[in-house]
Amino acid sequence: MTDVIFFDLDGTLVDHRGAVFAAIGRIVRESPNATAAPEELAAAWWALEARHMREYLDGACSFAEHHRRRVASFLPLLGEPVPAGPAGLDAWTAERYLPAFADAWRCYPDVRPALEALGRLPHPPRLAVLTNGDPGQQRAKLARFGLLEHFEAVLTPTELGSAKPAAYAAACHALRTVPERAANVGDMLSGDVTAATAAGLTGIWLDRGVDFVTGEPTTSTGAGTGADAVVLRIEELTALAELASPGGPLARKRPRTDANRPPAGGPDTGAAVPHAPHRPRRPSEHPGGSGAHDGQAVRFDHV
After folding, report:
1. How many domains in the chain?
2. Residues 149 and 81 in one domain
3. Predicted TM-score (pTM) of this structure
4. Which residues contact 47 (CB under 8 A, 6 or more apart)?
5. pLDDT tens, residue order, the chain (303 aa)
6. Which residues, 6+ apart, have CB-to-CB distance to 260 below 8 Å?
7. Which residue ranges does the record annotate as region Disordered (predicted)?
8. Three-class DSSP category at 127
């Protein structure tokens, strides 16, 4: 059976895309020399975020430096001078961006009911957050919405020494389990689901109906994740309790193989999980805000 369920944070528990666009929109409206409309400049910031976060995840710069690079590229679009040194760039982030961003954080409405339902199961799985974001800020988000108490751990590249998609094995080790007894829930089909299944976990795709990167309606069906991949597709986090309940797909045993046999005294492995049946989404159920889906190897868990 499944021992641990890992949760992505941004786009899964908290609406990151919506917060970013709201924050930048507010900043642009307060900037008299902005060179374009709020929507256009928010999209430009989003693209810079992806580029420089990738540099951070690849080890090319620190988290603080990735912010500086982002701000240095963005300020000319606001019609503002670029500070000459790191201190000025850090000050802009701390004084202009982060307050607006934090004010715009929103927790998805299905999160708390899902976590509470999992906790009421006869044998509840352990829960952890696995995110590529900054540890302090990610914990602040969870604390803001009263979610920290539900999680045994909040794991980031700082603790693990690697980021998703390479972090799944390290995350399992940190939680004293094996991939075959772990599941990962996320809204990005590639980084959260395909990469997790490649590492031996059960991938649970939270299809929020909106592509995290483009903001367009989801077009992928989740197919093509690999012949041996175990992928469950859900449209609301509240479906997790049913998957993890006795007799559900996350509770079934997997046959153990020599390749995935845990060490002596360690946990047993789980059971092969079939694809969960997918209920077609009615037009009225397509949510707004952010999701994250197909074809994106870069995780955007950050500010």
Report:
1. 2
2. no
3. 0.80
4. none
5. 899 999 999 999 999 999 999 999 999 999 999 999 999 999 999 999 999 998 988 889 988 999 999 999 999 999 999 999 999 999 999 999 999 999 999 999 999 999 999 999 999 999 999 999 999 999 999 999 999 999 999 999 989 998 888 899 999 999 999 999 999 999 988 888 888 999 999 999 998 888 887 888 876 666 555 434 456 778 789 899 889 888 888 887 453 333 333 333 333 333 333 333 333 333 333 333 333 322 233 333 333
6. 178, 179, 180, 200, 269
7. 245-303
8. strand
Tell me, yes or no, whether 20 and 155 share the same domain. Answer: no
Could you tell me if residue 204 is inside a domain? yes
Residue 296 included in any domain: no
Enumerate the H helices of the chain as residue ranges.
16-29, 38-57, 63-78, 86-92, 98-103, 111-119, 135-144, 157-160, 168-174, 195-198, 240-244
CATH code at 194? 3.40.50.1000
In a domain, 301, yes or no: no
Token pair of 126 as six digits: 């352990």
**Do 130 and 272 sit in the same domain of this protein?**
yes
Contact 6, 129 (CB under 8 A): yes
Q: How many angstroms separate the CA atoms of 4 and 117, rounded?
A: 15
Same domain as 267, residue 175: yes
Q: Is the peptide bond before 165 cis (omega within 30 degrees of 0)?
A: yes
Token pair recorded at residue 183: 């599941």
Tokens (6 digits) for 223: 């197919």
Cβ 133 vs Cβ 302: under 8 Å: yes
Identify the residue whose tokens are 């941004």: 10
8 is in which domain, residue-wise? 4-14+106-285
Q: Which residue has the tokens 């919506």?
A: 18
